[in-house]
Specification:
The protein is an alpha/beta fold. The chain is 35% helix and 16% strand. The protein is built from 16 helices and 15 strands. It has helices spanning 2-13, 15-21, 45-55, 73-85, 101-104, 122-131, 146-159, 173-183, 202-205, 230-236, 244-253, 274-283, 367-370, 374-383, 391-405, 413-431; strands at 36-41, 60-66, 92-94, 112-115, 135-138, 164-165, 190-198, 262-269, 300-306, 311-317, 329-332, 335-338, 343-346, 356-357, 437-438. Helix 6 packs parallel to helix 7.
């Protein structure tokens, strides 16, 4: 397999990274800081969300922002900054083209950067940040190839600069409650897990160039925001383009890269119909975009196998009309939880062959109330009003608190590389009719002794 050869070559040639990895206590050690000085690369819709959360914190100084979009993204971001800091506070905006982030990274008054840019820029910008001595928090997506994943790992190991993976669903309240259930043995020994990205994104992938979402069927240069770049991935690629929302949370439940690892995957895709139909329905059969041939299958299903014997099913479903769902299912020898329909069944507790409702955190006696994670119990008020039901607050909090305390990241470069790798491997599998693809061990064997850290300290 081409990816197996790449893996072996990377393992052999990464001498510096390997020697550093053999001293994990020294690797990625961070200097404790009372206040973290932050720069943001990418201040579009997602970047502005992160910016707002940083501006809320007294332990963060926003020093600079970078984005080539001077028509909407930068002015909006500067308005947020001015409102929070006052008109007299100077925050530099780097807007001179796509590469101006390199000039921002030359500053000596920035400790960390948050990267929320189009997917194809993530690795390049994270690598540049590490080489400049700035610790990056990197938004999620899927890599273009396996080389990208190794580049993230090798650069982090050779520079000693850690990387934080910004998978916000890991901090979703119900997901963390289920993680608590798993750790307390409610479901017995886990055997099978599911997750995915099932989200009608047609109004994200197309707009009219005047508004962020919907209103037309343009993409690329005639569109704005995500439709300007994200839709092109659907034109040219066929695989699980966004695996992290489903994979990250269930990985924490079975300790991937920390006592367990992903071994292999196989992926298949349906025909591609949804995006073409959307264009015809909204713009007419004669619209120029009705002639575009989209490569991405409407539904991509990926089955993964782990070292410890669990299976994971991921679903990527973004081109069709449907309610939002991340399709979570966590199943063990004593029962299971399913995200859809708020379903839970525990042998010996639930009535035979009947689902129970998992309930809500504020519903006394419900499963979600009894197993509400200590982090949510402690910080629910702080997270109130933050994006995506409050879980975005926990992402920024974990990143900032880890830097302040000089502590390892709960979601690190090995997690990020593993998540990112699913996309090119699934593409290869789909192209080869569902062929088996081997997933590289980005820890180079260290997963055997690495210990779980996510959401275990009950502080950040």
């Amino acid at each position: 397999m081409i990816y197996r050869r790449t893996f072996l070559q990377q393992t052999i040639t990464a001498g510096i990274g390997l020697s550093l990895f053999n001293t994990p206590a020294k690797l990625f050690a961070q200097v404790k800081k009372a206040k973290v000085r932050v720069g943001l690369i990418g201040v579009g819709a997602r970047g502005q969300n992160h910016l707002s959360l940083c501006l809320r914190r007294e332990d963060v100084d926003v020093i600079a922002i970078c984005d080539p979009d001077t028509k909407w993204a930068v002015p909006k971001a500067m308005q947020l900054i001015s409102k929070a800091y006052g008109a007299n506070r100077k925050v530099t905006a780097y807007t001179n083209g796509n590469e101006d982030f390199l000039n921002m990274l030359k500053r000596d008054d920035i400790d960390a950067v948050i990267i929320a840019t189009p997917w194809e820029w993530h690795t390049k910008q994270a690598v540049a940040a590490m080489k400049a001595g700035k610790t990056p928090a990197v938004e999620v997506c899927g890599a273009s190839d396996i080389q990208e994943c190794w580049e993230l790992v090798n650069t982090s190991e050779s520079t000693g600069v850690p990387v934080f993976g910004m998978e916000n669903v890991c901090y979703r309240r119900d997901v963390m409650a289920v993680l608590n259930m798993v750790r307390q043995g409610l479901f017995g020994e886990l055997t099978h897990l599911q997750g995915g990205y099932q989200h009608d994104l047609r109004g994200v992938k197309f707009n009219n160039g005047q508004q962020l979402y919907g209103g037309g069927v343009e993409f690329g240069e005639k569109a704005m925001s995500e439709a300007k770049w994200r839709t092109n991935h659907s034109v040219h690629r066929n695989g699980d383009l966004y695996p992290t929302h489903g994979l990250g949370p269930v990985n924490n439940m079975i300790n991937i890269n920390r006592g367990n690892r992903l071994i292999s995957l196989s992926a298949v895709a349906t025909k591609s119909r949804g995006l073409h139909k959307y264009i015809v329905d909204k713009g007419g059969q004669n619209h120029p975009n009705a002639k575009v041939e989209f490569k991405l299958g409407d539904i991509v299903s990926t089955l993964l196998r782990t070292n410890n014997g669990e299976t994971i099913m991921l679903s990527h479903d973004t081109n069709s009309p449907r309610p939002y769902s991340l399709n979570f299912r966590v199943q063990g020898t004593n029962g299971l939880w399913m995200d859809d329909l708020d379903s839970i069944y525990v042998e010996g507790k639930s009535a035979y062959d009947q689902w129970e409702k998992a309930g809500k955190p504020d519903e006394t006696g419900s499963y979600m109330n009894r197993y509400d994670h200590p982090l949510w119990k402690r910080y629910a008020n702080d997270a109130s009003g933050a994006g995506h039901g409050g879980m975005d607050w926990f992402v920024i909090n974990s990143f900032i608190e880890s830097i302040k305390r000089g502590a390892p990241y709960a979601l690190d470069v090995y997690d990020l590389a593993t998540w990112y790798a699913i996309t090119p491997l699934s593409e290869q599998s789909v192209a080869e009719g569902g062929s088996l693809q081997y997933i590289p061990d980005f820890t180079r064997g260290a997963w055997i002794n690495r210990q779980p850290v996510f959401a275990l300290n009950n502080e950040w």
